[in-house]
Amino acid sequence: MMNPNSLCIICTTGCRSWFLPRDGEENKRVSENLAAMVNVPKTKKTYCKSKECRKHTVHKVTQYKKGKDSLSAQGKRRYDRKQSGYGGQTKPVFHKKAKTTKKIVLRLQCQGCKHVSQHAIKRCKHFEIGGDKKGKGTSLF
């Protein structure tokens, strides 16, 4: 349902461009919202939803990392079979990369029951876990 305060900026009606900002609103862009550097503590007290806990406990924080691709997966076997022999590259190779950063995913492991959950945070250029805390009026350099 459309918000009555968000009318189209072009024709002042409820057309498809109603979600664009009006004159008084700021146009927030993703690149402006990028944090220069994100520093996350090594432990975090948060809710554990496993059947053993179901309460707030201390979690160990690590960064999610993609696992190694399996050589026996159906898509990989099909691709290798198609690539074999003469004929060059058979499938399209993607080159039009649009993003310069990735969304950071935190892997939270409960200290009590070892249950693992994931929590995605915003995009950032630099990310570290357990770095020095920045004090008031001081710099990290």
Automatic annotation (TrEMBL):
Regions annotated as coiled coil: none
InterPro entries named in the record: Ribosomal_eL44, Ribosomal_LSU_eL42, Ribosomal_zn-bd
Ribosomal protein listed as a keyword: yes
PROSITE patterns xref list: RIBOSOMAL_L44E
Database matches in Pfam families: Ribosomal_L44
Kinase recorded as keyword: no
Region (Disordered) residue spans: 64-93
Keywords noted in UniProt: Ribonucleoprotein, Ribosomal protein
Gene3D superfamilies from the UniProt entry: 3.10.450.80
A GO term from the CC aspect: cytosolic large ribosomal subunit
Single GO BP term: cytoplasmic translation
GO molecular function annotations of the record: structural constituent of ribosome
SUPFAM superfamilies reported for this sequence: Zn-binding ribosomal proteins (SSF57829)
Top-level taxon of the source organism: Eukaryota
Protein family membership: Belongs to the eukaryotic ribosomal protein eL42 family.
Entry protein name: 60S ribosomal protein L44-like
Origin species: Nelumbo nucifera (Sacred lotus)
Organism classification: Eukaryota, Viridiplantae, Streptophyta, Embryophyta, Tracheophyta
